[in-house]
Amino acid sequence: MSTHRNACFTPLAGIALSLLLMPCAVAQERTVELNAPPLAGAAAASPDANGSADDQWHIGFLPYLWFAGAHGTTGIRGINASMHASAGDLLSHFDIGLMGVVEVRKNRVVLPVDMMWARLSDSKSLPENVVGVNSIDTRVGQFVLSPKGGYRIIDGEKLKVDALAGLRYWHLGEKLNFNPTIFNGVSTSQNWVDALGGGRMQLLSSKASLTIAGDAGGGGASPDYQVVGLLGFKVKKNIILQAGWRYLDVHYRNSGSGFLYDVAQSGALLGATIYFK
Length: 277
Description:
disordered N terminus; two-stranded antiparallel sheet; Lipocalin; 1 helix
């Protein structure tokens, strides 16, 4: 993979906090089932004490926040801006957004859908290859939709392993204004889809869980991949708190339009899964 990882002294908000299906484990008590949260995309629960399989449909909703830092390069029409931003930098340039996962599951089959929409801005991005420009005002919008399907290939009481496959749809819009204004600003948007394959392993106890998961693929981008580690803790029968770490890397380049989005993001994730059924 050919990347452009040039650091700058001020943050560029040309990056969005994309969402991915985050994993979280399931745990089952002797008489009460603990369902897997939507971030996990977990399939059906383990058989009950009598050995009968859980044949019910389960629906969960997970609102979450991802406190990610980022570094990389973004650009339009061959005009590139390097960036290196901490989680605090990105939050200071966050305008508006919405993140959440909805999951439907039954037996060993799971159907999670993850959605993230965010708008960010930065007035002090540093130009990488524009002579006479001191800084760039950057406006970025991102929408990411990740539907997946999975099958639980190992469904033990303390160990569960899932195989996952799906798509990640990206929409990115960028607008650059230059300081001083030696020529007009530029703006563009891009849409693409990447095919993904991955897996998830869950280690369980009666209340806590540890999940390690990842996926990789490509299509419009090359590559598009992520790795996740997550801890879960059941606080009520239908509520699970989750905390962990996520790394996401995507390299997208459209040679025809000169659009570049080559960014790696990593940071802490917090969420709470609420079950309605």
